[in-house]
Amino acid sequence: MKNILIIRLSALGDVAMSIPVIYSLCRTYPDTNFVMLTTPVVSRIFINRPENLQIYKAEIRDRHKGVKGIYTLYKELRKFSFDGIADLHNVLRSRLLCALFRFSGVKSFHLDKGRSAKREITTRRHKKLRQLPTSFQRYADVFRSLGFKFTDNFISIYEKEEVPIPEIVLSECDTGMHCIGIAPFAKHIGKIYPEKRMEQVISVLAQRGGYKIFLFGGGEKEIEILNRWASAFPDRVISLAGMKLGFSGELALMSRLKLLVSMDSANMHLASLVGLQVISVWGATHPYAGFLGWNQSLDNAVQIELPCRPCSIFGNRPCWRGDYACLYEITPEQIVDKIEKIIHTKK
Questions:
Q1: Which CATH number is associated with domain 167-346?
Q2: CA distance to 11, 68, 143, 160, 219, per residue, from 156 (Å)
């Protein structure tokens, strides 16, 4: 097989999780051409990619929208003369595209999402909580079904490249202080540590001294909250909201930090791409579902054990109890203690 199509269109965190596997595969098979089909926005995180990895942008909200758009995309991709397809998404859009290629004799293998096992660990009654295969293992299995044998040996997107230094790092981190990041938001409420409690975490760290804290976030409401937190400690806390660093700037900045505090969100996976240690905070979701970041330690996961956890794979289900105890029972001190333990270990 000399030409392979890889499909993973979204979401940001899931595409980020594919990078350690894809980069390892490409470096193991330098004579094979791999084409990554993804959306224009998330394509920007494929930094310092292997030479035999091309990016093809699927404009699913424009000319590649709907059934007609998928057929247009199929006609565009035929020029590569693919020998096989690795569908890392396994949704209606990707399966339709694979079906069109199948008429041309191109075989495809699809991601096993393990839905039945995920239902078993999130069900309200008779829960069977256990470690499920990680997304990295599931992605690798798709390629192995195509006949590829390789070891996941990814370390960082900057492993062999010089890391660009954002201006903000030069001005803020060259102070002898411990530069850390905090990414307090996620897509769903079941994964977000309560605002007031995260504010306490920041306040404790800022008042203890020795820390320079960078706040990550980008939504309109997020910008307002982050700027308010930063304004309380202007010499210690910096809001990156609205700075428009882009993925390349944020990843370069993350590579210079000592650790990141993140929810079960895309920021955990972005930090993992630069080898940054992450303290991950878990509420309605659970690391056992397979979404812990690449090379991240379960010991650094902040969570409490409740018989109802996890109740959701993505954190999008309403809390059965109605109180989100899985998040509210995590104390700010637990997170601060994790931070200081890692900082002390790194000295």
A1: 3.40.50.2000
A2: 20, 38, 21, 8, 27
> What topology does CATH give the domain 3-111?
Rossmann fold (3.40.50)
Domain(s) labelled CATH 3.40.50.2000 in the chain stretch across 3-111, 167-346
Q: What is the pLDDT of residues 315-327, one digit of tens each?
A: 999 999 999 999 9
Per-residue pLDDT of 215-241, as tens digits, reads 999 878 899 999 999 999 999 999 998
- Distance between CA atoms of 97 and 105, rounded to whole angstroms? 13
Beta bridge partners of 110: 87
Amino acid at 190: G
CA distances from 257 to 8, 186, 252, 338 (A): 29, 21, 9, 16
Q: For residue 98, how far is the Cα from the chain centroid?
A: 25
CA-nearest of 32, 23, 92, 1 to 294 is 23
Contacts of 152 (CB under 8 A, 6+ apart): 20, 21, 24, 136, 140
Q: What are phi and psi of 33, to 5 degrees?
A: -95, 125
